[in-house]
Amino acid sequence: MSAILEQKCPNCGGAVEFDANSQRLKCPYCDTEFDVAAMQQAEEFKSNSVQDINWNSQNSQWEAGETDGMNVYVCNSCAGEIVADATTGATTCPYCGNQVVMKGQFSGELKPDLVIPFKLDKKTAKEALKKHFKGKKFVPKAFLSENKLDEIKGVYVPHWLFSCDAVVEASYQAEKYRHWSDSKNNYTETSAFSIYRSGSLGFDNVPVDGSTKMPDDLMESVEPFDLKDAVPFSPAYLAGYLADKYDVGVDTSMPRANERIRQSAFDAFKDTVEGYNSVTPIAANMNVANGFYKYALYPVWILNVKWKGETHTFAMNGQTGKLVGNIPTEEKKAKLIGGLGGAVLGAIIYIIAAIISSL
Fold it and tell me: Which residues pair with 317 in a beta bridge?
């Protein structure tokens, strides 16, 4: 029974509760009711494993002479390895800001299949950062005037891209409610429906970040990237930029890609079941074919801003210009504004109460 009590509402995600009056499970957030047996089946459906996806590689190896103009640099602090062209001198790690030293010639690892070249330059990234600071509430004035853009680097971030064809079959239990009343009682009529869906979906280039040094939330926030601009990889695109070597292998990335594809497929089919008060997934099956993966490099500007001895990292999509990052806030000011807002709301409530009492 504990598994049922922990079941999430398929409609809004809230935790459902057993209603003694109706003998059904009810969501206290959206008031949707569910049949107990159907929810048990749904719990079994969630715990059932779906066919694993077999991924095939379309990667190629480095050919003789292709890496002659490329060097590998290693960070003294985070031990991250960064690829750059042979003209790059002493530099700093774009992720942690510490010194980077040359390790030697590039060797091993897979060759990237695709690269999205940088479309926006360093000047654009600096202007985007200034614009990002404007109009932000609760930002300390000292930060706006004293912060220092300590480092700005254009980095190609590694990604694994997964593609496949999927055939999905899914069944659901859905319900419709009709309410009416007379002079004595209120009535509810519940109509139950068994629904079946089947069809095929294609998934192209589902991305999984291949770098542990680039925080996943920061990388996902600057997405999406448009692969229409992608071109076959050439070392020439590294001129003036850095490229992070992947340290999350494709095997490690596969479970995340599998889950993203499965969830997207099941959500897409569930969204086709419309016009009902509640919809509960009962069973689903997904068969996958033509699964393959590629290795691509995405362009990102990393901007490290120093203030009061701390480094604040911002990232800008080097293709679209989308910039993200956390700006420090002045907690005292935020609390003061929040307190004033509460005081104003209290005064409004008091005035309304006074008006009502005088009527």
Answer: 300
